[in-house]
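Progress against Task 2.4 (sequence-to-structure conversion) is shown through the following example record, which the project officer requested during the mid-term review.
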Amino acid sequence: MASTRAGLFNFIVIGLVLAVLATSYVYYASPVIEEAEQVNKENAVAQFQRVVMLARAQWIKSKQSRVLIYETDFDASGSIKQQKEVAAELFVNTKGWPEGLEPDQGNACEYMFTLATLREFDVSSKISVSDEYANGYLQCAFFIQDKVWFEYNAGSGVVRERKS
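Structure tokens generated for the chain above:
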């Protein structure tokens, strides 16, 4: 009987210790996980803005309705190197802002987001996209769980993040 009580006591003590440890982990880890998710979202918006500006720079140089953007790196001296082996083609409007694809050719906003983040959309993704044409220019809205995350206006080149 005494060994049963000691075993039950040990079981309860170990269970309580594990419960306290698990609660502490959840309490302290949740903000870290939320912060990491926020950084990932901000990085995706910054990468999208980078694609917009790279396409704009190529348009300024060429004034063509289609531009190629290349993967870019910095070398040790700080100068920019373009990896010309890998390029993506973007349609650019008359104002010089990228619209991804020509009008009515598909999911232009999704295409630009995939270029920026190197992540493809799938059915299980929490991210959804709306592309519409207003006043002749592409308007993109990106949503996370039906809340607007950020928007892109190809009439002005503005990428605007919505803080939630």
